[in-house]
């Protein structure tokens, strides 16, 4: 069968239909070509081979399985088959382009250092072989190289970065319209070529020996439709109270969109546009600043690709943090939610059960690990990477470095969150704490594993020595 006008869309962290510039451009190209068969094919490659690409954690693997299942159905409704491949995209993508005899390959741009290297290599391979390769924005509000200080460098402090983004209020392009189903399904054409779509079950993304995902299934619906429902509910019912509600873990005060943004099931442009169309006031402004913080983290990663494993402030290389191996009992107690500090333990148990932890609790938990227990932020970052459904390559290390004081933002490095005061202030009545730690306040609850006052003094002394 004739396949002229075919576009291969290489999907990554953009698992949606709407506001997908690469996908929409592919459908438009197919419509203009006048070809109805084999015009758009999508592929997702689980990259287990490229140098520097970090393997997904357990919670994100679970999410990816369900996100791809839902996306395959959504794409099929547009006549677009989704191919699933495991391996090296530098081998798989050019080979598919050759076998399918495509005109072009489309993808959404990525911003991590190893990811950009992979994309650049594949683009060179495709163009050398005579294929057109086009990348599109869609992961951020603004491309990182377009937001600079007056001196021409990257922003290292959030407040002026946010002020600059807010001054560009009208600049983020409106979401790209969802592509229309103007093409016939390419499934029969792929079958004629002997190309299998792939079996998601063979990837082993779901737990097998021990099914730990029951809480995740109860807490989440990893689909594009669910993302928009959550956003609509939040804007209708909770955004006005967001400045207060965002800090109270016992309440449903947040949007819970972070995992959907992480996998691109909703884009920041869609969120930004919806907020501007439906909400005004302090609550909306505060919420948009959280979208801005996500943007800031990704801009930092673009300019400082070593951020996931290196202190952004080099003087902190001399800080005497311990590894988890050097403090195994303390680290184990922290991960299992039995530190003797109710708010922290509730957060860790919520995380294990649902793949999520309230942001206020994340800060208290991270501070206890890094500043009171003296364990390196990279150990906590790795634990969150494996257990959070929203763990991404930028926000996860940036937030840990912010708490540790070694990051780019101007938060005082000597800020130490007292977990007991955080509990008293943000969980009055211990509603959240007792929800996840029912034995809290009884003889069955463990004593604190560290003296807050003494450990705080030790941390401040170590920080002072860095000067």
Automatic annotation (TrEMBL):
Pfam (any one): FAD_binding_7
Domain Photolyase/cryptochrome alpha/beta, chain residue ranges per copy: 5-141
Transmembrane spans: none
Coiled coil residues, start to end: none
Gene3D superfamilies with a match to the protein in the record: 1.25.40.80, DNA Cyclobutane Dipyrimidine Photolyase, subunit A, domain 3, HUPs
InterPro entries tied to this protein: Crypto/Photolyase_FAD-like_sf, Crypto/Photolyase_N_sf, Cryptochr/Photolyase_FAD-bd, Cryptochrome/DNA_photolyase_1, DNA_photolyase_N, Rossmann-like_a/b/a_fold
Keywords assigned by UniProt, alphabetized: Chromophore, FAD, Flavoprotein
Cofactors that this protein relies on: FAD
UniProt keyword Zinc present: no
Sequence similarity: Belongs to the DNA photolyase family.
Name this protein carries in UniProt: Deoxyribodipyrimidine photo-lyase
Organism phylogeny: Bacteria, Bacillati, Actinomycetota, Actinomycetes, Micrococcales
